[in-house]
Amino acid sequence: MTIHDWFDGPYPARVRIAIAEKQLESRVRFASVNLWTGEHKTPAFLAKNYSGTLPVLELNDGSLIAECTAITEYLDNLDGPPTLTGTTPFEKGTIHMMSRRAELELLDAISVYFHHATPGLGPKVELYQNPEWGMRQRDRAMRAMDYFDTLLKTRPYIAGTAFSMADITVIGAFIFAAIVKLEVPAQHVALHAWHARMQARPSVQAWNRMVEETWAAR
């Protein structure tokens, strides 16, 4: 399998962490698509993913799966029982609900803030910007941080009692927040405590090491 991604991208990080959680590293190769030069918007890449977003999973027969949730679903059911997307109907529904909330209210909102209210990926990629919309999405992300902090006062993980795809989505949001220097308020104690526990997971530590080593080698 080939993952088309960019090494420190917040969305690609979600799939890389899922791969590490599933211990599938030996079965995956990574092909770099440079976000900062707009390579993901070129005709060659758009032929692989109409949306022009990363990551994309390419199977050995040439089949393509885009979108982090879809890729994670595939990987989670590849071998053995699923561990990231739930086993019972209730678990599956809850995990997908919480992952989607994390995308819409937090991760995607930070992404819109980045692309519209900051220089983003530069003028060659950011052909249209609406700063007011970007700031509205920044405020939306801040409200979502409050929501997830309140949620984590009652449960150890985003979707309940076990680590899941929903946690990985919020980890991706923290990665993006760090890139745009959007600080999680200090009063969100439960959210910060959860994030500290996530940083201790081997899969997240492996991603952090990879990013540090790749930057050091550039």
Distance between the termini: 25 Å
- Unreliable stretches: none
Helix-strand makeup class: alpha+beta
Q: Strand order across the biggest sheet? A: 2-1-3-4
Order of helices and strands: EHEHEEHHHHHH
Characterization of the model:
A 4-stranded mixed sheet has the order 2-1-3-4, with helices on one face. It is an alpha+beta fold. Helices cover 54% and strands 6% of the residues. The longest helix has 29 residues, at 89-117. It has helices at residues 10-21, 43-46, 68-76, 89-117, 131-152, 165-179, 189-199, 202-217; strands spanning 2-5, 29-32, 56-58, 64-66. The protein has 2 domains: 2-83 and 207-217, Glutaredoxin (3-Layer(aba) Sandwich), CATH 3.40.30; 89-202, Glutathione S-transferase Yfyf (Class Pi), Chain A, domain 2 (Up-down Bundle).
In short:
By secondary structure, the chain is of the alpha+beta class. 54% of the residues lie in helices and 6% in strands.
Q: Secondary-structure blueprint of this entry?
A:
Blueprint: E1 2-5, H1 10-21, E2 29-32, H2 43-46, E3 56-58, E4 64-66, H3 68-76, H4 89-117, H5 131-152, H6 165-179, H7 189-199, H8 202-217
Parallel strand pairs: 1-2
Antiparallel strand pairs: 1-3, 3-4
List keywords for this structure.
218 residues, alpha+beta, Glutaredoxin, Glutathione S-transferase Yfyf (Class Pi), Chain A, domain 2, 2 domains, 4-stranded mixed β-sheet, globular
